[in-house]
Amino acid sequence: MMRSHLKFSAVAILVFLLILGCSKKEKAVPEPGKTTTQEIVSPSGKMVFKVPEGWQKHQPRSQMRLGEFMLPGEEGNDSAVLAVFYFPGSGGKVEDNLNRWYGQFVQPDGSPTEEHIKRDELTVNGMPVTVVYVTGTFLKSRAMMTDAHGEELPGYAMLAAIAEAPNGPWFFKAVGPQPTIDRWKTAFMEFVKSLKFES
Predict the structure, then answer these.
(1) How many CB atoms lie within 10 A of CB 25?
(2) If exposure means fewest CB atoms within 10 Å of the residue's CB, which of 7, 104, 141, 197 is most exposed?
(3) CATH superfamily, domain at 31-198
(4) At CB < 8 A and 24+ separation, what contacts does 21-25 make?
């Protein structure tokens, strides 16, 4: 009788632990639409925005970046990195920056990357915002602005936005494996639509 009771207790504990483990896994999945309000401060004002759950804020890898977020991948795909740039004085014209970014990609069929761009024009809290999406082979050396032959990363994508704020353009550029970028497309657009400049 005692042995049966002990076996029953062991099974009950095992079931409880399995349920607890499943609950923890479910909580790890980002909830759609859940965000936190954050801001990045520049010398002439700050940009306020809502960060989707799941994005991880990191210390910028370069002094050129005001902010940096990691966008986790899934099913074996690497994460993407969203970098935030702002250059006091002048960040250059929107089209010049977009063309430079397009030049960081080449197409498997040899066609011009410009022919594969998906582009949207928005107005967000009074700011003109240009959003672009492109896929192809990412040329890491060009992204780092070096002449050295660097790593070529096929199957990559870029999702980027340029917000023309009162103190000049702000740049938001996410690059990573296409499945990862595609996973966060909707969240990225929600992020862009939340941008608000405060002087």
Answers:
(1) 8
(2) 7
(3) Mog1/PsbP, alpha/beta/alpha sandwich (3.40.1000.10)
(4) none
